Amino acid sequence: MACIAGGIAQTFYKAIPADIVLQVREKLPKALLALLDQFNDTFNCIY
User: Fold this and answer.
1) CB under 8 Å to 39, separation ≥6 — which residues?
2) Contact between 30 and 38 (Cβ < 8 Å)
3) Number of other CB atoms surrounding residue 33 within 10 Å
4) HEC states along 6-40?
5) Are 13 and 39 in contact (CB under 8 A)?
6) Which residue among 2, 26, 32, 44 has its CA within the 20 to 30 Å range from the CA of 38?
């Protein structure tokens, strides 16, 4: 449910505040963070 709500919220608000992005990135394991960065680079995603 949280993943769905997060996706909808990002679409609705158009951007995620930088402080939230930083807090979440600090909690992610390095392997998942690397995968996330690769995905964002590939699809030109902006937080």
Assistant:
1) 45
2) no
3) 14
4) HHHHHHHHCCCCHHHHHHHHHHCCHHHHHHHHHHH
5) no
6) 2
Distance of CA 30 to the CA centre of its chain: 14
First to last CA, the chain: 20
Q: Which residue has the tokens 């998942």?
A: 32
The burial of 24, by beta-carbon neighbours within 10 Å (0-12 exposed, 13-18 middle, 19 or more buried), is given as middle
In tens digits, the chain (47 residues) has pLDDT values of: 888 887 788 788 887 888 988 998 999 999 999 998 998 899 887 76
Q: Rounded to an integer, what distance in angstroms lies between the CA atom of residue 46 and that of residue 36? A: 12
Length of the chain: 47
Residue with tokens 């960065």: 37
